[in-house]
Write a structure and sequence with these properties.
- The longest helix has 25 residues, at about 110-135.
- The two termini are about 55 Å apart.
- This protein has a 7-stranded antiparallel β-sheet with strand order 7-6-10-9-8-12-11. Strands 2-1-3-4-5 form a 5-stranded parallel β-sheet, with helices on both faces.
- It is an alpha/beta fold.
- It has helices at about 15-25, 40-50, 65-70, 90-95, 110-135, 185-190, 235-240; strands at about 5-10, 30-35, 55, 80-85, 100-105, 140-145, 145-150, 155-160, 165-170, 175-180, 195-200, 200-205, 210-215, 220-225, 230.
Length: about 250
């Protein structure tokens, strides 16, 4: 896991120094304290400049208190805010305002470790979500005595049957080649540009050479390499709209 950036905001120098020392001693995650601020105004400036992952924030501070500062942060982009305070009466409001945790002073090392363990778990979940949300750049496929890594643009048709998911791709001047794939049609549909044309078929819109209209409002697609994919009534209108076939 990468090093996390943190800002400590507290109007008491001793409290800031003590917390920074405790952060340095813990071993749950690697944290760099990139700024130490004695008020919320300075803290807001540093948050905007340094884009930290964590803020350790006191509540009772002059001019702008910690609760008020929390309300000034954009919920969509704000760091994880951990209140560190001697007062427990603000805990409910803090959590209602999207605080990540609430630690009472004096800070016990075991309590800090518990918080940072939660931070670690949350960051790993978020990192995994970012990775899983990314589009696929390569599709793992298996052919006869070989494995293929196909770019999504090389796929013409993907379809499923009782034996699994199959990929039809354009292989230069050799025409179409068919391989099997361990990914589901749903994953291929969500993470590539392949379009659903039938409950069991996906099509690369850039590989379509011809759409043949059949009886009963059905159709079939012929790709540039000659592969054929059925089009059900449910998806024919979508294809007509996409290619302005009216």
């Amino acid at each position: 896991m990468r090093m996390l950036k943190a800002i400590v905001i507290d109007d008491e120098q001793y409290a800031r120094d003590e917390l920074i020392a405790l952060i340095a001693e813990q071993q749950e995650v690697t944290i760099e304290v990139v700024a130490s601020c004695n008020n919320a105004i300075e803290g807001l400036k540093k948050v905007n400049q340094l884009k930290p992952d964590l803020i350790f924030l006191d509540i009772q501070m002059p001019q702008i208190n910690g609760i008020e500062m929390l309300g000034m942060l954009d919920p969509e982009t704000m760091p994880k805010v951990i209140f560190v305070t001697a007062f427990d009466e603000y805990a409910l409001q803090a959590f209602e305002d999207n605080a990540f945790d609430y630690i009472l002073k004096p800070v016990e090392p075991c309590r800090l470790r518990k918080t940072l363990k939660r931070v670690k778990c949350k960051m790993q979940q978020e990192n995994y979500q970012v990775l899983t949300d990314k589009p696929l750049s390569l599709i793992p496929c298996a052919g006869f005595n070989r494995y293929l890594l196909l770019k999504p643009s090389e796929i013409e048709v993907a379809y499923s049957d009782q034996s699994g998911v199959h990929i039809i791709s354009q292989q230069s001047d050799k025409g179409a080649a068919e391989t099997s794939c361990s990914l589901s049609l749903k994953i291929l549909e969500e993470k590539t540009e392949l379009l659903r044309c039938h409950r069991q078929y996906l099509i690369n819109p850039n590989a379509i050479r011809e759409i043949k209209l059949l009886d009963n409002a059905l159709a079939e697609i012929v790709t540039v390499s000659g592969a054929v994919a059925p089009v059900s009534r449910r998806y024919l209108k979508m294809l007509k709209d996409r290619f302005q076939l009216h």
